[in-house]
Design goal:
With about 350 residues, the chain is α+β, with helices and mostly antiparallel strands. The chain is built from eleven helices and 17 strands. Among the domains are: about 5-170, Uridine Diphospho-n-acetylenolpyruvylglucosamine Reductase, domain 3 (2-Layer Sandwich), CATH 3.30.465.10; about 175-250, 2-Layer Sandwich (Alpha-Beta Plaits), CATH 3.30.70. About 30% of the residues lie in helices and about 25% in strands. This is Glycolate oxidase FAD binding subunit.
């Protein structure tokens, strides 16, 4: 457990004086995401440790380099969890990197994303200033919501040093049902289930089989099991499936092909791809692997009411995020300039123009 914020601050100031750029690295588990990284390595993995944890208040504060495994172990002692179920990437993932890359697991539509659980952050901006945004309480209305702005920014706005977030109790019961059906039928069925007041906590379709997880009070879970009447998985089978899905360790993800991630309307259909996809988040997130033209994929995503990104593989020197309209580009550039006027942090990692 070490507070290296002063050292990091000095490295940022030195880079600014020397007109050098910095490539922020934590556990290095998500280096495959975004565009090709450039700049001198700024290693923040040593800046780690839980600063404050209040189980009764359901709030935890930790330094950005803290491994998720360390945080989850502390929470488990109090039967609590990170409800956004972030992937650990073989135990190398850190809290800061998880926020910077906006990583959330199968329960995201029902329990929220990492962005939804963040209460406050501290970060070092491009001027070397150590700033604090938000707080350590759930009801906080002080200032701009800069904390959540860090979700998905991939370190382009500054070096996150500390994060406060809310945690939740583990559910009293969790069970999984499965049905054999095609992709289009599964999309319709998942949306029908999601509209009902039931303890649904995850829904995923893969290779002709729909998996639905129920989590919550034992009485509610058991009543829903009887009503929905699917094939119930054993606890070991269910734990293994959701664990492998959340950690992106299913055989589907073990590929050298480009991996595309769609974030779209949950009820939308993409006939050309759906039967070959992994459909998660009750239909709102879809993974597809294969060589495809990016503009074609963007047109499919737009027609389905969302966006697509080249999550991994492919040409990382080209744009990998969905094309941003000129108006949004202008806003993002202004935000970038306000935090990092000299363009020190992770230049081009998110977009070539930022």
């Amino acid at each position: 457990m070490a507070d290296l914020s002063a050292d990091i601050q000095q490295q940022v100031l030195a880079a600014r004086d020397a007109k050098q750029t910095l490539n922020i690295i934590g556990g290095g588990s998500k280096s495959f995401m975004g565009r090709e990284a450039v700049g001198d390595r700024l290693d923040v993995s040593g800046h780690r440790g839980i600063v404050n944890y209040q189980p009764v208040e359901l709030v935890l504060t930790a330094r950005a380099g803290t491994p998720l495994t360390e945080i989850e172990a502390a929470l488990a002692e109090n039967n609590q969890m990170l409800a956004f179920e972030p992937p650990r990437f073989s135990g190398e993932a850190t809290l800061g990197g998880t926020l910077a890359c906006n990583q959330s697991g199968p329960g995201r539509p029902w329990t929220g994303s990492v962005r939804d659980h963040v209460l406050g952050v501290r970060l070092i901006n491009g001027l070397g200033e150590h700033l604090k945004f938000g707080g350590q309480v759930m009801k906080n209305v002080a200032g701009y919501d800069v904390s959540r702005l860090q979700a998905g920014a991939m370190g382009s706005l500054g070096v996150i040093t500390e994060i406060s977030l809310k945690v939740l109790p583990k559910p009293a019961a969790s069970r999984t049902l499965a049905w054999d059906m095609g992709a289009q039928e599964a999309i319709t069925f998942m949306n029908q289930l999601a509209s009902r007041p039931k303890p649904l906590s995850a829904a995923c379709w893969l290779q002709g089989r729909l998996y639905v997880r129920l989590s919550g009070a034992l009485s509610a879970v058991e009543a829903t099991l009887k009503e929905w009447k699917g094939t119930e998985l054993t606890q070991d089978q269910a734990n293994q499936f959701w664990q492998q899905l959340g950690q992106q360790e299913l055989p589907f993800f073990d590929t050298d092909l480009p991996l595309w991630r769609f974030s779209i309307n949950s009820a939308a259909s993409i006939p050309a791809l759906d039967e070959y996809s992994l459909i998660d988040w009750g239909g709102a997130q879809r993974w597809f692997r294969g060589e495809q033209d990016k503009l074609h994929m963007e047109s499919l995503a737009a027609a389905a009411g969302g966006q697509v990104s080249l999550y991994s593989g492919g040409d990382r020197r080209s744009e990998v995020m969905h094309t941003t309209p000129a108006v949004l580009q202008a806003i993002q550039k202004r935000i970038k300039t306000s935090f990092d006027p000299d363009g020190i942090f992770n230049p081009g990692r998110l977009y070539h123009w930022m």
